[in-house]
Amino acid sequence: MTQILPAPGVLLIADPFLKDPNFKRTVILLCEHQDEGSFGFVLNRPYSYTLDQLMASAEGMPLTVYFGGPVQPDTIHFLHQYPDKIPGGFEVTDGTYWGGDFETAISLLKTGDVESSSIRFFIGYSGWSEGQLQGELKEKSWITSKGTRKLIFHKDMNEIWKDALIDLGGDYEQLINYPLDPQLN
């Protein structure tokens, strides 16, 4: 199968043997890709604190926050499916938006006007400098596929990596059975 080129809305699925502990068995949604660099969010790594533990304005909202990546871990970002209710977002892929008015998003969650299953919060992000991601793709560190709302807002973060490979089918489906450490095989 031909690799999909990096672009907003593309998923980076970690090769089963990727050694970097930040990205082992992760799926990253690319939000931006340019010659100068790329960035996105890890979709399947929970952070150790919930949203209400990180932000006073989210009091009473113990929502899962995901570890978006090791870059700028003092920033909070979000993905959502509400362009008509949360202004200022950027469409990453069909029906999935990155960012927008943060206080509006919090307010809508508090009033129940948006579903918490259709919005995801991330601390930090994953970033690549000029040419770095292309190098990692040449090394086959990542498998690429088109991002879908089903995967981006998956109900079970522990299944995102497996389901992303299953969606690709063929030989990719077999990768889900590979051990974390091939030397233990």
Helical fraction equals: 10-25%
Report the total helices. 6
C-alpha Rg (nearest Å) = 16 Å
In angstroms, what separates the terminal alpha carbons? 26 Å
Would you tell me the structural class of the helices and strands?
Answer: alpha+beta
* Helix and strand sequence: EEEEHEEEEHEHEHHH
Q: Which parts are unreliable, with pLDDT below 50 for 5 consecutive residues or more?
A: none
How many strands in all? 10
Q: What percent of residues are in strands?
A: 25-35%
pLDDT averaged over residues: 93
Features:
185 residues, alpha+beta, ten-stranded mixed β-sheet, 6 helices, globular
What does this protein structure show overall?
The protein has 185 residues and is α+β, with helices and mostly antiparallel strands. Helices cover 21% and strands 33% of the residues. The chain contains six helices and ten strands. It has helices at 51-54, 102-111, 132-138, 149-152, 160-168, 170-174; strands spanning 10-14, 27-34, 37-42, 46-50, 64-67, 71-80, 90-93, 96-98, 119-129, 142-146. Strands 1, 2, 3, 4, 5, 6, 7, 8, 9 and 10 form a ten-stranded mixed sheet that branches. Strand 7 (90-93) and strand 8 form a beta hairpin. The longest helix has 10 residues, at 102-111. It starts with 9 loop residues before the first strand and ends in an 11-residue tail after the last helix. The mean pLDDT is 93.
Brief summary:
The chain is 21% helix and 33% strand. The chain is of the alpha+beta class and 185 residues long.
